[in-house]
Structure formats: C-alpha cells, structure tokens
Amino acid sequence: MTTTPAAGASVPDQALQAAPGLTELGHTAPGRTAPGHTVPGGHSRDRRGSPVPTAGMIATRIMELRKRRGLMTALIVVNIGFPALFMLIRLLLHAFAPRANPPAGSEMIFRILAAGFLPTFGFIMAATVGCTAGSRDLTEGMFRHLVVTGRSRLALYLARVPAGLAIVVPLVAIGYMIVCAVSVFAAPAFIDDSNVNIPPGLSRAGFENWASDHAEPVICTLGNGPLPGNVTCPSGPPPWSKSAVPPAQPAPAAVEALAARIARQDYSGQGGYAAIYRYPPVSLMIEAGLWIELDVTVGFILGLGLASLMGQRTGPVILIIMFQIIVTPILSGVAIPHLEDLQRSVVGMAVAHLEPAGLPTGAVLPGVIGGGGRPGAALLAESATQSAFVIVAWLAVWTILGAWRMMTRDA
User: Fold this and answer.
1) Which pLDDT value is given to residue 239?
2) Across residues 312-334, what is the average pLDDT?
3) Phi then psi for 374, rounded to 5 degrees?
4) Which member of 98, 174, 186, 230 lies 3.0 to 4.6 Å from 105 by CB, making a disulfide possible if both were Cys?
5) Which pLDDT does position 150 carry in this prediction?
6) With pLDDT > 90 as the criterion, what percentage of the chain qualifies?
7) What is the rounded distance in angstroms from the CA atom of residue 295 to the CA atom of residue 313?
C-alpha cells in the first residue's frame, strides 16, 4: 500500500531533483535531450561550437556596424555624397551656362572617377570599416561576454566578413551607379577631342572633310607643328561653345589642307578620334565596377585582419593608408634590381594589374590604383593569373592571422 505524505510534511531533497535534461515540470530542457533519448546519428543539437557563422550572428554584426552613426555617415558621404555632389554641380553648371560648361556626363569624366576617386577613397573607407569590425569587441569591452556564450571564436570572426561586406559593397555600388548613370544619360551629343567638339561616327574621310570645314579649331587644338601665318589661335579659352559643334568657317586652301592632314593623323591611335566615345561602353562599366568592388573587398579584409591582430582601430587604419598611398606607388614606380618578385607580391600592384584596359593608366589621385605608381606598373610584367594568386594569398593570410589572434586572445 502506498502512503502519501501529510500536508505540510517535508519531502526529501532527492525527490525534488529533476531528472537530468528535464525541468521541474517534467519537460525537456531547451538544448537538452530527455533521459534515455539520443539525437539520431549521435550528434548534439548544440551548434555553438561550430566554426560556421549562422545567419543570426551575421545579422547581429551588421546591426552593430549600422549603429555606429559616425562611421556610417562618413561611409555614405564619401562613397555616395561626393560623387553625387560632383555630378550635380556639373549638371547645374551646364544647365545655367551651357556655352562655358560642357555636358555633365562623358567617357572622360567616367574614366577619371572610376580610375581615381572611387577606388582610392572606396579602399580607404572599406579599410576603416574593417578595422572597426575587427577591434570593436575589444575596445568596447564586449569580447569577454562573447566568449562566455560558448560560441566558436572562429565563427565570431568569420561572421564579420559577410557583415562588413554587406554594408560596404552596396554603398560603393550606389555611388558607382550614380556616376555611370550621369555619364551615360547626360553625355554630350558630340565627341570631345582635345576641347574640340566633333560629330560622332565619322569615317576617316568624313573626319578629314569636317576638319577642312573647321580648320581653325582643328589646327589650334589638334595640331602640334608651327602655325600658318594666316591662322590666329586664341590665347585664352576657346571662343567656341563647349556644348555644341563649332560652326563651319571658310579658310584658304592651304589651311584646309593642313587641317585635313592633322585630322588624318589624329583619327587613329591611342587617344585619337576613333578611340573616343560619347559615353563609356557597357562592357567597360561592368568591368570597372567589378574591379572597384574587388579593391574595396581587399581593403576591408586587410583592415579586419590587421585590427584583430593588433587589437585596436586607429593604428591599423593609419598603417594601411600609408602603405597604399605612399609605399605602394613607390614600389610600383621604381624597378628595384633583384627584388622584382617581391614588388610583384604587393597586393596593391596586383590589383592595379587587373585594372580594365579602358581606364587610364595614370590616375588623378595617388593610392592603390595610381598616382605615381601606375606608370611603373608596366615596368614589372605580371599576368592576370599571377595577380589573382597574389590577391587570394593576401586575403587568406590576413584572414588566418586575424582569426588566429582572436582564437588565442585571453578573454
């Protein structure tokens, strides 16, 4: 016969202890298995030790970076605000003074921005975001709290890669698309060849005939030899409109013949009439966009790994900027005997070798892609395969170093 304890009687402690894996109400505890039950396949349901970051971890990292308003504001202003403002000013200047200001869009404007401003400042901002993502937990004292959750440190580090790129890559793409849109839809109806507006699509014979009818602007701007005595070129800005094709003017036969000969020499070759477009080709815009995003990705990964290795943000940002703005152009502009292979192993030069052929070889601003370093890129021959291996090696090494430091750092 079973007896029931009287009301108010104490029950032994052993009777109140729940079975392992069960709550006091008899339900299975979260993340645990009931006694006598095993997960099929013998695997545990607890995935906190997995080195693969989950979608929730990546989303958390994105939210953490987005909450840094100063960083996000700088990222938006540099990658979107500056290109948009530059294009807006050109649109307004052309709208209010079309004779003195050419149309806002053109292939030349696209090349200047795609080869100079966008990759250089995109790399700097991407490196800054990477350094922030790699050092935030340490500088804000959150690293210990992340470690005690039991999550894999490798997963915590790898989650920063897609999180940071998910912020940087779209913003750079938006700024780049603004440049492409204005360059195409606000392109001039003519071809600007050395400040001479010429109708597009002319054959060699058509270009020579047009030059004969417009001898003065052709001789004054395209010619390199001595001027005929009966031709007077303006000393200041050209008197013809920058937004329209100059009108035809009669000239002596000798002057027309000289203009036709200049046009014949200027038609073909690098920078000649046949190589100039009203707006950038679609293939060039696609290649340049992918190349800029590659440059931005390299900057972010380097910043992330170096900041994780050093445990701070300011120092890595300064080192990366100095290396890319000062050291890389020097190494790419001077051929050092017996150290050519070492120079080729610099990631900035590897990225520069992958620059699309349609972009200018000399960028307006110094940095990863240019300035004093771009002319030197031709001194050190390097195939696209070699450049790709150098880039992959740099990305892998800095990812490994950053993850290793995070896995071995004391909490």
Assistant:
1) 65
2) 86
3) -65, -40
4) 186
5) 64
6) 30
7) 20
Q: How many separate helices (H) and strands (E) can be counted in the chain?
A: 18, 2
Residue 47's SS3 state is coil
Whether the pLDDT of residue 340 is over 60: the answer is: yes
pLDDT at 316 over 80: yes
Residue 201: CB atoms within 10 A of its CB come to 9
Lowest pLDDT segment from 211-215, 268-272, 405-409: 268-272
C-alpha span between 148 and 376 (Å, rounded): 51
Residue type for 208, please?
E
- Measured between alpha carbons, how far is 168 from 172 in angstroms, rounded to an integer? 6
3-state secondary structure of 289: helix
Query: Which tokens in the block code for residue 332?
Result: 């790419």
Measured CA distances, 239 to 11, 30, 149, 212, 220 (Å):
106, 81, 73, 19, 12
Q: Are 306 and 262 in contact (CB under 8 A)?
A: no
Is residue 176 predicted with pLDDT exceeding 90?
Answer: yes
Q: Between 384-408 and 282-310, two packed helices, what is the crossing angle to 10 degrees?
A: 30
Q: What's the Cα-to-Cα distance from 133 to each of 162, 168, 171, 304, 317, rounded to whole Å?
A: 11, 12, 17, 6, 12
Closest by CA position to 194, among listed 250, 226, 233, 252: 233
Nearest to 368 by CA among 327, 313, 396, 316: 327
Residues 6+ apart with CB under 8 A from 333: 372, 373, 375, 376, 379
- On the question of pLDDT at 74 being above 90, the answer is yes
How far apart are the C-alpha atoms of 182 and 14, rounded to whole Å? 78
Residue 198 bridge partners (DSSP)? 191
Q: Is residue 211 within 8 Å of 218, Cβ to Cβ?
A: yes
What sign results for the dihedral spanned by CA atoms 68, 73, 74, 79?
A: positive
CB-based burial, 353-381: b 16+ in 10 Å, e otherwise: bbbbebbbeebebbbbbbbbbbebbeebe
Cβ-contact 409, 143 below 8 angstroms: yes
Least confident segment among 34-48, 53-67, 102-116, 300-314: 34-48
Distances (CA, A) of 9 to 3, 6, 94, 219, 276: 13, 6, 94, 115, 98
* Average pLDDT value for residue range 334-347: 80
Distance CA 117, CA 82 (A): 10
Q: What is the pLDDT of residue 339?
A: 76
pLDDT value at position 62?
92
